[in-house]
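STRUCTURE:
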């Protein structure tokens, strides 16, 4: 584990569930450029908590693509799959505060009962299992029913009060601005699942604190998720980094590049003769 540093620390944290594309290249280059401007360090972190989709060959490919772009980073590289016990401890801390509860609802049940959507457009969980009596919870857990553990957002925000975070504009050296976090618009998010003691939200705040990350550079599509991260940082007693939300690289239809949509990978571009300079020009850097 990396130790907190007195100098700025940034990170690029891809998931190894496919090959990197131009959107990833832009995000990585923004992160390394920001680290240079701040006189700090850029870390590589592998976010591989999804055991089904994460593949060792993609971990290797990430390193190959970033090296080809001319980027380097300190070793060893943190991999989330090696830190499940740490995330379980964080979840236990929230559970001890009475802020996690078991939810037995299926996706179809949530979709049928939801009256609104979250910032990502997914059905907003209506809190069906929030008030299950303890006896029913124990009975269903002992029976082995499919379960996920949700954060009681109402109880959590009542404990923390109004939340803010610090963000900077187009340059990480811009004057910081204070923004208000609105975690209530996410409802009771899932933080743990049966057999998996963490979620993206939980692991990312734990790891940013463990690595001493001072600045988080992320796409504008992740700006709303900062609401949840700031809330968890407060509940877990973790520091909150400064955030920078960069533009997205879009396809010809104006949509965000995506592994799931089969967006052309850096490896594909390299195979047809692209150079790192071509990539930089393509993403406007």
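SEQUENCE:
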């Amino acid at each position: 584990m990396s130790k907190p540093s007195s100098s700025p620390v940034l990170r690029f944290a891809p998931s190894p569930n496919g090959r990197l594309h131009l959107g990833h290249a832009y995000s990585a280059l923004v992160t390394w450029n920001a680290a240079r401007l701040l006189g700090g360090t850029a870390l590589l972190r592998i976010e591989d908590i999804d055991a089904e989709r994460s593949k060792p060959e993609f971990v290797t490919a990430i390193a190959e693509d970033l090296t080809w772009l001319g980027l380097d980073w300190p070793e060893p590289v943190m991999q989330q799959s090696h830190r499940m016990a740490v995330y379980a401890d964080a979840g236990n801390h929230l559970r001890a505060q009475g802020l996690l509860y078991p939810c037995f609802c299926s996706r179809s049940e949530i979709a049928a009962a939801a009256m609104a959507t979250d910032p990502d457009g997914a059905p907003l969980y209506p809190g069906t299992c929030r008030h299950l009596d303890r006896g029913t919870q124990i009975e269903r857990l002992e029976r082995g029913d499919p379960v996920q553990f949700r954060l009681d957002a109402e109880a959590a925000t009542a404990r923390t009060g109004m939340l803010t975070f610090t963000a900077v504009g187009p340059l990480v050296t811009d004057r910081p601005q204070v923004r208000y976090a609105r975690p209530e618009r996410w409802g009771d998010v899932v933080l743990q699942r049966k057999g998996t003691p963490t979620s993206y939200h939980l692991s990312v705040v734990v790891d940013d604190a463990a690595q001493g990350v001072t600045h988080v550079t992320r796409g504008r599509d992740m700006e709303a998720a900062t609401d949840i991260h700031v809330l968890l940082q407060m509940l877990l007693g973790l520091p909150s980094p400064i955030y920078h939300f960069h533009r997205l690289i879009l396809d010809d239809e104006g949509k965000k590049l995506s592994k799931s949509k089969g967006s052309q990978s850096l490896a594909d571009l390299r195979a047809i003769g692209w150079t790192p300079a071509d990539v930089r020009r393509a993403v406007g850097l």
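REMARK: The domain at 89-238 is CATH 3.40.50.620 (Rossmann fold).
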